[in-house]
């Protein structure tokens, strides 16, 4: 990614579609289209301006092609990357490459899913692994449960510490008017919830909702002429380590260590320079692993780091300020929403959950079973 220039491009428009359980008959493409029009209105552009399209969903064989037909546009450049929930962070890097190379000027990144309405098993069937299938794992929860068990064994992390992550996410969600969850959550309620795959209860796991999201990117020069303050792309990084969990080299170390390092190097920043942290929280253990691997606490210290409310509202490090996949929404491939919240924090438009004086935000995505990792660091004009 050496060809990418710090601050050369920006995210200028963001929007969700309807979230939660959407109206009967709406398709993933309807949700992508809805979010696209809202994101374009957010930045003051129109479909006529879009000449680059980047889309993915698990409910279409050719999502970019389908979205272009749905919107009635024929872009100069397109991309259909699918590496799970971090696809959108990778698309930010790919869109920047295309914009810098002159292959497009205004890029649309979009996602949509009706997994709650259609049933999750009907929209995201796992690939069968002959070495894992005999143990009848619950995909993907059992994979993340393995990582949680190993972290607890190796570092003494406790169930109560993991539960604190779910509680902190719920506290942030209560400040977000569009979050799915509307009631407080306690550690005891997390621990006492239905066991899904030991040691993770259903409250350690992300929501299952419908929803779509869209981002609009363009060059820094054009971004400066648009309606809202740009969120400049300061750094990006990607890393693929495995596909199935049984091939993961170390269950307690993710590719975020490498994608994060690349993003920090491009941005010229360190963890101490980040004002708001948004990480893909498919499960409580993912938040803990990414806090460690992105350098916000030492390896093995994640449990103790989150134990006293450090990542909750009022804590020392604001993490997943929209309520995350655990309490805000999770329509399958959640990464686009991670980026959306990072943009809103940098713009200073997050309402009651706004982080004071937020000039930088990190958005980290995860795909598969801790398999693909991609990191984006965003900053305000003051960081250029």
Describe the structure.
The chain is of the alpha/beta class and 384 residues long. 34% of the residues lie in helices and 18% in strands. It is built from 14 helices and eleven strands. The strands form two sheets. Strands 3-2-4-7-1-8-11-10-9 form a nine-stranded mixed beta sheet, sandwiched between helices. A two-stranded antiparallel sheet has the order 5-6. Helix 2 links the parallel strand 2 (52-56) and strand 3 (77-79). Helix 1 (28-43) packs across helix 2 (63-71) and helix 7 (159-173) crosses helix 11 (284-293). The model has no long low-confidence stretch (mean pLDDT 96).
Care to give the gist of this entry?
With 384 residues, this protein is an alpha/beta fold. It contains 14 helices and eleven strands. Strand 10 and strand 11 form a beta hairpin.
